[in-house]
Write a sequence for this structure.
């Protein structure tokens, strides 16, 4: 049977077919749909969870793999930084049953704070790495990963990128095989699973020796293949870039590497000898290029194909034309270059109509506070009309940065914003640090009962789990922060602006670390939709205050105010969810909720 | 017989159902016997951003996205997004446009202007061979569900492709929740009629 699957759906399918029993991860674009698909489609066969953070997921998978269960762990590229501490030891210990770590990188920064190339982790952690080019390969390589993991007693890294994870193509479906291993008691192999220096000293040489054996495998593995064409140009590539290369250089010979660590030296060497000119085309860093150059092979790489952003077919083609590597055959490139549509107003994402974060950002902007920000939907607070998140770097960082502002003793009131999921992920240790070190500042925990930005996943603050049939325990944030020693805690309704303002002011006055919890469910969780509000144009004085709540449903009217000439407001009833925040800030009470039936 | 490649670009605003329409379009291609690839730029799981999906049908498809100047059908859920996608259009390309405008926040706050209809039309005509424009949002609203905009547009597109309507309808039913099947088939038929009426004639109205 065949189906059209995204790369992430195909990885999930691969996990199912490979007999994987446990899947754990922390959400992060573009990786999140793997766990979600497993829960939805294969939840009967695979235990699935969103763990508190990536490292927790990795440790859980290690423990389960030591216990003889096949596992996968999923993360986005920056989650690998959190996970890596635990990745390092699993490479030393190896496993009882297959363990594959899936990283989905984000060349082009579609939804990430950086463009890091996780193939460096392959070399750092010495973990064998597979790179699929499309959905069929994503599924096949996951299965191969489980097989290699058991054969060589090592975790395997599967490296996807956004264009694999979020692209779709046709996949042939197979049946599930069951894991033949059954372990009843946990292995007491201290020499294998306890990385105390004494034993780890034995493990390291084993890792090096294992890599040599896997490199031998790579020499003859089918996934490393040469597609011979014209020998005047040879290209070494991997992953989705392979598909771009095939479109742009239909006549070149291509060495496609399905395994990008360790590399097959002899295969690369003989390919290099058989072609006149050799290119390495890889997105982001020169990870392959530097290794190939270190083999003493001459290649052209980053001097032509830049390290920043994606190398999409258009861009590759332009570079190749300019460098004289291909001839223009069909497209009228001039007409494309003169494309005059780059001057259009940008459509940056905005907080949804009905979003519980809106009231707080309206107030932070109004009071002009210094705001250390964190990652989540609320980071949209850095954009107009709010411009009220002044820093953002990594998950959980806001609380530590707020503490830094406090010890630097800046002379103005300061707060930080952190989402509920992010607070559990990595916000707790820095808050405890603030308490212990007697910091001053307001930690605003924006509790929307969801990990919203990455697709509304569960986290420890809700009583449901990704697998709907599994019950989950809710951890109460208010009690938690009190138990952590925070003495000033205020809990407010995020949809009541005055209440939020009052809580904020009380916290700002407190001399010590304080926590303001703004509670209001994400509309994707509550599915709240009330009758749309309307603007009474006669009462509207065009003051523009409602525009400052940054709601896409509040738009300019065609009508102008007679005296000021400013445009009045209008509400797009197809977008409004009826949350009333705009009405709460309107000074003339021009925004009202009509009786049922008044809306056309 | 080797099939001709067909490249589609579906553009719109998050929340409009563009992704689903691209999924249906991909599945229809597969059922019709093509190799199919699709690439989505989903951005964040939030409404309001630009959403872009490439869909390619062919004998054997390479990259999941098309190069500039090679899109045969630009399916635009929103005029501003249509202009943004125009650079991808092939010289003989066709535009299907939902004329319902959704101004971005930089426009509502008064920082930037939404292009005038004259300008939109001029830019479209400069690049596109044929433009079919209609207010699909209004049609969907009068049908009773704004979310059917995507299927209305697919209905219109189906008139220009050589795939039987029954295959479209079956695929649509597979992709929408069962309680919305009926309304979506109706939406599909509305879309079909939108350009049947003036098939192959330039039709631009709003
Ligand atoms: C280490 C790491 N893991 C995952 C992500 C992806 N990510 C960005 S924000 C976010 C969490 C958002 O949830 P929350 O803090 O509850 O804020 P919300 O979006 O719900 O407002 C995640 C998982 C990341 N940027 N870094």
């Amino acid at each position: 049977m065949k189906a059209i699957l995204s790369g992430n759906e195909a990885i999930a399918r691969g996990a199912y077919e490979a007999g994987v029993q446990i899947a754990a991860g922390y959400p992060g674009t573009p990786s999140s749909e793997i766990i979600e698909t497993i829960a939805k489609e294969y939840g009967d066969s695979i235990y699935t969870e969103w763990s508190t953070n990536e490292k927790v997921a990795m440790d859980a998978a290690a423990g389960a793999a030591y216990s003889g269960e096949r596992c996968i762990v999923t993360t986005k590229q920056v989650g690998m930084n959190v996970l890596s501490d635990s990745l390092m030891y699993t490479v030393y210990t190896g496993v009882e049953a297959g363990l594959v770590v899936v990283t989905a990188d984000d060349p082009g920064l579609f939804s990430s704070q950086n463009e890091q190339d996780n193939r460096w982790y392959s070399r750092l952690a010495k973990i064998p790495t597979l790179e699929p080019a499309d959905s069929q390969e994503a599924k096949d390589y996951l299965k191969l990963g489980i097989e290699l993991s058991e054969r060589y007693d090592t975790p395997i890294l599967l490296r996807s990128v956004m264009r694999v994870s979020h692209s779709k193509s046709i996949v042939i479906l197979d049946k599930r095989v069951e894991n033949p291993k059954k372990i009843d008691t946990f292995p007491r192999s201290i020499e294998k699973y306890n990385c105390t220096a004494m034993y780890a000293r034995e493990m390291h040489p084993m890792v090096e020796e294992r890599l040599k054996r896997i490199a031998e495998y790579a020499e003859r593995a089918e996934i490393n293949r040469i597609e011979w064409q014209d020998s005047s140009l040879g290209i070494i590539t991997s992953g989705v870039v392979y598909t771009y290369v095939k479109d742009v250089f239909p006549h070149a010979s291509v060495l496609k590497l399905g395994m990008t660590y360790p590399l097959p030296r002899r295969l690369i060497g003989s390919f290099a000898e058989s072609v006149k000119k050799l290119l390495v085309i890889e997105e982001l860093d020169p990870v392959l290029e530097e290794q190939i150059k270190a083999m003493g092979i001459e290649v052209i790489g980053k001097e032509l194909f830049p390290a920043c952003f994606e190398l999409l077919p258009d861009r590759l083609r332009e570079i190749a034309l300019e460098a004289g590597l291909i001839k223009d055959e069909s497209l009228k490139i001039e007409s494309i270059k003169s494309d005059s549509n780059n001057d259009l107003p940008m459509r940056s994402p905005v907080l949804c109509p009905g979003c519980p974060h809106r009231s707080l950002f309206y107030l932070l902007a109004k009071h002009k506070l210094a705001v250390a920000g964190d990652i989540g939907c609320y980071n949209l607070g850095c954009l107009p009309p709010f411009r009220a998140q002044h820093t953002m770097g990594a998950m959980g960082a806001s609380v530590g940065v707020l503490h830094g502002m406090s010890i630097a003793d800046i002379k103005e009131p300061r707060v930080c914003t952190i989402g509920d999921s992010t607070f559990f992920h990595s916000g707790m240790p820095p808050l405890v640090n603030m308490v212990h070190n007697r910091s001053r500042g307001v930690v605003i925990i924006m509790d929307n009962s969801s990990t919203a930005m990455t697709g509304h996943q569960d986290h420890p603050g809700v009583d449901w789990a990704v697998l709907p049939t599994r019950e989950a325990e809710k951890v109460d944030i208010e009690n938690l922060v009190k138990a952590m020693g925070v003495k000033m805690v205020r809990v407010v309704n995020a949809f009541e602006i005055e209440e939020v303002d009052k809580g904020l002011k009380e916290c700002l006055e407190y001399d010590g670390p304080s926590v303001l919890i703004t509670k209001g469910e994400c509309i994707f969780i509550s599915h709240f939709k009330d009758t749309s509000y309307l603007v009474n144009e006669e009462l509207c004085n065009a003051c523009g205050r409602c525009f400052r709540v940054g709601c896409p449903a509040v738009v300019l009217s065609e009508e102008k105010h007679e005296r000021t000439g400013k445009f009045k407001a209008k509400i797009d009833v197809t977008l409004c969810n009826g949350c009333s925040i705009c009405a709460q800030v309107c000074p003339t009470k021009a925004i009202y909720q009509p009786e049922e039936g008044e809306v056309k | 017989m080797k099939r001709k490649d067909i490249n589609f670009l579906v553009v719109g605003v998050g929340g409009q159902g563009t992704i689903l329409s691209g999924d249906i379009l991909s599945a229809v291609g597969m059922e019709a016997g093509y190799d199919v690839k699709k690439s989505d730029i989903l951005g964040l799981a939030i409404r309001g951003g630009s959403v872009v999906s490439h869909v390619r049908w062919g004998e054997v498809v390479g990259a999941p996205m098309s190069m500039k100047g090679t899109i045969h059908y630009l399916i635009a859920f929103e005029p501003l997004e249509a202009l943004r996608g125009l650079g991808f259009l092939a010289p003989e390309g066709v535009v299907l446009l939902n004329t319902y405008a959704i101004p971005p926040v930089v426009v509502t706050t008064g920082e930037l202007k939404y292009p005038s209809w004259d300008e939109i039309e001029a830019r479209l005509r400069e690049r596109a061979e044929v433009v079919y424009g209609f207010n699909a949002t209004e049609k969907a609203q009068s049908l009773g569900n704004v979310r059917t905009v995507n299927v209305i547009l697919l209905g219109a597109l189906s008139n220009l492709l050589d795939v039987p309507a029954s295959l479209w309808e079956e695929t649509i039913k597979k992709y929408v929740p069962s309680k919305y099947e009926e309304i979506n088939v109706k939406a599909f038929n509305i879309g079909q009629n939108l350009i049947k009426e003036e098939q192959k004639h330039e039709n631009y109205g709003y």
User: Anything to note?
Assistant: Chain A has four domains: 2-220, 224-330, 358-519, 534-592.
